[in-house]
Each structure stands twice: as structure tokens, then as C-alpha cells.
Amino acid sequence: MKIPTFVSKFSLFMPRLFTYSDFAQGSEIVRTYADKHTPVVVCNPTAQRNVPFKVNVRIGVQAKHPNKPEHHFVYIQLWNLETLVGEVRLNSAELGEAPLQIEASFEVLPAVSLRLTAVAYCNKHGLWRSEEQFVKVTD
User: What's the rounded Cα separation, in Å, for the pair 56 and 52?
Assistant: First the structure.
């Protein structure tokens, strides 16, 4: 395959970002599949400027995700718009092999209001993105 000079060979393989809403109209089995893969940003809707602010990211609301070498989460990232706030790398071997709800904690020092999104990578089912969580920052 000849790649045009103006196109990077890597841009041809941009991964898809899945969200819960992509599957929300499906059957109960499909919605459970989406639930156990979708990260959710959990935090207060307001924060004080320049005061440490705790943000949790949980994968799934009700369903537990498998944690086997052939099917596990590799990382969870927290983003403020296009800025990476933090990343937690997961070692599935340290978490055991039972299904689980993974949760990662981040601490943010907000200067302005935040628009937080989480991204998590499952080694079997790809990248999953949360809904955006707006946090109003006050003095």
C-alpha cells in the first residue's frame, strides 16, 4: 500500500473512542458490556481556586470488569479539555484475577473552571471515554 506523502502512516489507524451512549439503546447485555468498560468521573461540581481538589475515576457504575491477562485495563487518564491532568498505569497481576470495579484517584490544583473527561484503555476492547464533568472554580 502506497501512503501519500502528506498522510502519516499512523494517522490511518486512529483508534475509536467508545462511550456508554454508543451502546445505551442496546439490550441489557450490551448496556452491561458498555457499563463495565466506561470510565466515570466522580467529583464535586465546585472547587476552590488553588486548593487541592480530589477527582476519582471509576470504571463502570454497576458491572465489574474482568481482570485476566487476556482481558484487563492498562491505564486510566484524566483530561481537562485537551490537557492531560494525570495517568494511572494498572498492573492487572497486582489486582488479582477476580472481576472488579477499578477506581483511580487524582488530585488537581484548579486555577480556572474545569471540563474533566476520563479515558481508559482495555487491552481487549480498546479506548473508552467518560462523559464530560464540569467543575466550577470559585475564589
Answer: 13
Given CATH 2.60.40.730, say whether it is the number of domain 15-138: yes
**Side chain identity, residue 48:** Q
Supply 8's cell numbers: 502519516
Characterize 102-139 residue by residue with b for buried, 16 or more Cβ atoms within 10 angstroms of its Cβ, and e for exposed.
bebebebebeeebebbbbbbbeeeeebbbeebebebee
Which pLDDT score, from 0 to 100, does residue 93 have? Answer: 84
In the block, cell 498505569 appears at 89
Name the H helices within 10-68. Answer: 28-35
* Number of residues that make up the chain: 139
Predicted confidence (pLDDT) per residue in 86-115, tens digit = 999 999 888 888 999 999 999 999 999 999
Q: Where are the beta strands (DSSP E) in 8-50?
A: 17-18, 39-42, 46-48
pLDDT averaged over every residue in the chain: 91
Q: How many CB atoms lie under 10 A from the CB of residue 36?
A: 22
Residues in CB range of 31: below 8 A, 6 or more apart? 23, 24
